[in-house]
């Protein structure tokens, strides 16, 4: 949270992209919401999807064949931007009202 907030405030970056897969998705959404409540005027676009990941397990004993499993994993990409993003994008969220934002110097 601190790094992303610093990028948007001190480093003059216009946007931050948060990406997560699987169980990390809920933490990433929480982080995005916390950042939006610390910096005024952040636009958001959220993209969701899934990908297949293949794991290969090598046998511990000789003469056995490796086992491959493929799992279908959800993923999310959240873009937070100080500049206006495409409001017609299906995952667009406008900035939250300024009165709901508690800026960093208020902590």
From TrEMBL:
**A family per Pfam:** Alba
Which UniProt keywords are listed?
Nucleus
UniProt xrefs under InterPro entries = Alba-like_dom_sf, Alba-like_NAB, DNA/RNA-bd_Alba-like
The molecular function GO annotations come to: RNA binding
Q: Where in the cell is it found?
A: Nucleus
This entry carries the following GO cellular component terms, namely: nucleus
The record places domain DNA/RNA-binding protein Alba-like at 2-51
Q: Family, per the entry? A: Belongs to the histone-like Alba family.
- Under what name is this protein listed? DNA/RNA-binding protein Alba-like domain-containing protein
């Amino acid at each position: 949270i601190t790094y992303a907030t610093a990028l948007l405030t001190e480093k003059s970056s216009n946007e931050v992209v948060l990406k997560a897969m699987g169980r990390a998705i809920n933490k990433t959404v929480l982080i995005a919401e916390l950042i939006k409540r610390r910096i005024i005027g952040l636009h958001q676009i959220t993209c969701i999807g899934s990908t297949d990941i293949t794991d290969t397990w090598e046998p511990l004993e000789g003469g056995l064949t490796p086992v491959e499993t493929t799992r279908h994993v959800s993923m999310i990409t959240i873009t937070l931007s100080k500049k206006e993003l495409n409001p017609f994008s299906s995952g667009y969220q406008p900035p939250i009202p300024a009165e709901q934002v508690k800026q960093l110097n208020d902590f």
